[in-house]
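Customer escalation, tier 2.

The customer says the design service returned an amino acid string that "doesn't look like it belongs to this structure." They asked us to rerun it and document both sides in this ticket. The original structure tokens are below, unchanged.
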């Protein structure tokens, strides 16, 4: 009997999500330009995207939409974090989970998952990198989800946004590697066999330089492709199918956030590991 209220709440949330997806799909039909298919090249050159809500704000009519969208996502993340932790700051939050499906529970679930993965991959020092990894997870997730809202474009479908994220992970990886190993960090690039060190150095340098490129192009390509597919199906089959496409878009947004953060954890783990050779 105790499971029935939870089952009903879950069913209610699923129905609400389906209703919201249907409403957003209809909004793309009713409002002209909201179903326009955006392009990555057009985004970089300030081309026509159809109706963009952020461009309706005075002073932002000619701003780069991916920059404005990224700033908007950062503001939303800050507000969500502030509101979601209000009870904790006031001392009213209970240490025992209440079982309520609210904003605090969602944030605790995200932070807990990031912490669990970071500690299992990086080790007992994984908690030290939670602020970076948690911020990346929330920011990338909200940027990806912007593409599901009418009048918005996901900032992560622009290579400039993903390149900055990839370079951030690249710089942090080597900074923490030097702090953890000192001058011995160079041994990570030389390999275990001394007479192969010159060759290994070249290979490792190329491998490390390719990491930010891999992170940025993977995220950019998947989000750009997903948004193109969504726009195409919305214009060809405007009823029912866009709802399914939004479900696929939500799945892609979650998976790409997870993959980016997982690879970041692996890079940090390799950098802070102590060379035993």
């Amino acid at each position: 009997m105790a499971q029935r209220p939870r089952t009903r709440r879950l069913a209610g949330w699923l129905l609400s999500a389906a209703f919201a997806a249907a409403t957003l799909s209809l909004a793309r039909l009713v409002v002209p330009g909201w179903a326009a298919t955006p392009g990555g090249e057009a985004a970089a050159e300030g081309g026509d995207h159809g109706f963009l809500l952020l461009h309706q704000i005075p002073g932002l009519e000619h701003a780069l939409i991916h920059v404005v969208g990224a700033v908007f996502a950062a503001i939303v993340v800050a507000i969500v974090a502030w509101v979601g932790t209000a009870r904790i700051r006031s001392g009213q939050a209970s240490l025992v989970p209440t079982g309520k499906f609210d904003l605090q529970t969602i944030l605790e679930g995200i932070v807990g998952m990031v912490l669990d993965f970071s500690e299992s991959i990086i080790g007992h020092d994984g908690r030290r990198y939670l602020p970076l990894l948690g911020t990346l997870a929330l920011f990338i997730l909200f940027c990806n989800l912007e593409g599901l809202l009418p009048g918005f474009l996901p900032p992560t479908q622009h290579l400039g946004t993903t390149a900055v994220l990839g370079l951030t992970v690249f710089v942090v990886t080597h900074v923490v590697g030097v702090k953890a190993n000192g001058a011995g960090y160079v041994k990570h690039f030389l390999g275990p066999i001394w007479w192969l060190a010159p060759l290994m150095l070249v290979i490792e340098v190329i491998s490390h330089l390719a990491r930010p490129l891999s992170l940025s192009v993977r995220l950019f390509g998947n989000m750009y492709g997903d948004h193109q597919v969504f726009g195409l199906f919305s214009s060809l089959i405007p009823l029912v199918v866009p709802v399914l496409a939004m479900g696929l878009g939500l799945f892609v947004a979650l998976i790409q956030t997870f993959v980016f953060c997982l690879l970041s954890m692996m890079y940090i783990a390799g950098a802070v590991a102590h060379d035993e050779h």
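Tier 2 assessment: The sequence is consistent with the input. The mean pLDDT is 77. DSSP finds nine helices and no strands in the chain. Sent an explanation to the customer and offered a walkthrough call.
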